[in-house]
Amino acid sequence: MTLVDWLIVLVVNLGIVLYGLITFKGIKQSFDWYLAAKSLPWWAVGLSAFSTAVDSGDYVAITGGAYRFGLSQISQWWLGIAIGWFVLSCFVIVPMYRSGVYTNAEWLEFRFGPTTRIMAVLINLQSRTNVVGNIYFSLYLVLNIIGGLSPFWSWSIVVAIAATAVLYVVTGGLESDVMTNALQAMAMIVSSVVLWGIVWFRGGGWQGLDQKLSAIDSQLPEVLLHVGGYSPPGASPWLVVFGLIVGLTTYAVINQYEAIRFLGARSEWDFKMGALLASAITAFCLWFNVSLGPLARADFPNLEIIDSAYPLLAKKYLPAGLIGLVLAGLVAAGYSTFASIGMGISSLFVRDVYARFLVKRETDDHYTRVGKLSVPVILALGFAYIPFLQDGMLVFYLRIAGAIAVPLMTIMLLGIFTRVHRATGSIGLFTGLAYGISSILGDWLQWPLPEWYTNMWWAYLWNIILPASVMLIASKVITLSRGPATAEEIEGLVYTRKRPTVDVRELMGRRLSILKDTWLQKTLLKTPEMPEFPFPANQNTWLRRPGLLMVVYLIIVCYLLFVVLW
Amino acid sequence: MSNSEETSREKKFEHRYSAGLLAAVALLLLASIYYTFALWPLKVFLALILALASALLIRRSNRL
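Structure tokens for the assembled complex are given below, as produced in the milestone run.
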């Protein structure tokens, strides 16, 4: 890399960091720091949700994953994450937004009790620090291979990136995180398009790719260039695609670091339109990243570390100047996710652990300070995963997510859509976790268990069916002995299209007696009720119905995935 | 200073700052042609788009 390349990386990324530091500083109130005073417009929510979901680990790991799994990967980014964002914005987040909670784990305690709240924190912590580890490793690979830096300097720069991300989150909170994310999203999109365009045209397009793959193995184009092409032993292509879709649906539904930017929106319409924008941009951008996988396989058929596919392509095809532009986008992707994970997990730590169980009645300023202090600690935990990522970041993540994160999504969805009893949440969650962990151990330790039990793709199906069935049966049994769940227990916590007629804030304030006079209760009661639309309710425009636009999006994507590319 | 004056001043700063960043990247892209002529039309094209976006931001900030 030349001096100009490094300057481009510096100007883009330090420019955005300085923007965050200068523009959003001195935020002291917890409502402003954690929820941006519920002021975020739809375009900021959408761009931020996209750049939070797609990190530099994804650029590198997705290309590495598609090197092995082919275009089947695209199903999760076109459909899985979109379903997740649509379900989140149209249903899951609605009662959370209306009831005034700051975190999804907080809602879980109101709906299912303290055990589920703590488990949600632990699951979020595990999965997000795993992602931070992926980003560290991917940035290291990129700096080492593309930048030609020694391991020492590569790791030093990775640490410097994480440290500077901490700075602007600490000073500006969620607003700084979201607005810098919006700028970083632009750099990421340019980066994806530039690299893909050059590799694609130099490689002879689709026809050239097909010919090169056939020359390596005549079956390879069939496997890599079709959405339904990949099927490992014991799992059909449909099951693989189902697992990939559920994986990212789960991601969007359960993750507090995604949910918090939706909770910070200025109206319900804003977070729904934000979800739509995020889905469209993700679909556009990830097409380029995923299809780089087969292109890399054609160029480098025998890679030992599949995650080096992306940096190797960049190094081979990009001249001076453009390599800096692509690296700038990758670093921006790392920044955006570092900041968002720091912000999201710190809100979980402070509201769901520290203020809930440890220090309950301190000043508002105190809890904001603790939140700021926890950000660097959270990002440092990501380094613990580095030794496990050598076999491919995506494979490790998919294995763990299917076993641990999917049960949490299942209980959240049942909590939102059904009137199951409060006690059933923990039962469902522990059932799913018991199965998930035993399937991982069975797989890794070669226990004599059937394939359908230990295979990672089957885990995505069983971890929906098992917890949901157990919860519904348990709820039926409780109903038979005690009667159905009362309105006092679930009013304002389940999804309803119209706003509840009761005063939800007042109900939330007295629902958990253990929170009496605590900071958690005071901030919950003080959170303002936000409107459904940011414009006059009688303004009749097609934009008033984001749900319809979402359906159109889903129809187009399903046609492309299951007809054109299958 | 009133709230709206402060918001307008902040917006002006944000627009000019972003315009400066875009212009700097455009110049660096053009400078990279000095190292290699490979794909120079693409670099010029990207630099032009960035310069255009930068000019639009400056125009918007002048109207605030």
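The CA atoms of residues 15 and 60 of chain B lie 7 Å apart. The radius of gyration of chain B is 15 Å. Further analysis is deferred to the final report.
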